[in-house]
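Retro notes
What went well: the complex prediction finally ran end to end.
Inputs used:
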Amino acid sequence: METLTQEKCEACRADAPKVSDQELAELIRAIPDWNIEVRDGIMQLEKVFPFKTFVAALDFTNKVGILAEDEGHHPALLTEWGKTTVTWWSHKIKGLHRNDFIMAAKTDQLYSG
Ligand SMILES: C[C@H](O)[C@H](O)[C@H]1CNC2=NC(N)=NC(=O)C2=N1
């Protein structure tokens, strides 16, 4: 399997399939530090990134925002003193698509603590 960080997101389509249970089990192994959350019936990938300062958290938040714009796929971002919470899911399909795993892997690449 090509590593997720080398892939680009495909355009979000309402008829795109959610990842299957088997794909989910395989893909989550590539991003083991991410949590699978279900909110209002929507499966999401979530991870908290700790920082020493608010400024560092905000800088990381902006980097993820630039990545999202570049890929055309956008997260929910919660920036607080000392941490940024990043949550990925595909709005159009109300669940998880391979795009969300690609973006989670690329988000990890932006983090330097
Ligand atoms: C037109 C635009 O590309 C689409 O609306 C994109 C924008 N970014 C997106 N981001 C996410 N996470 N899910 C989407 O369905 C989505 N759709």
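What we learned: The pocket of H2B is lined by residues 12, 72-74, 90-92 (CB under 6 Å).
What to try next: split runs per interface for comparison.
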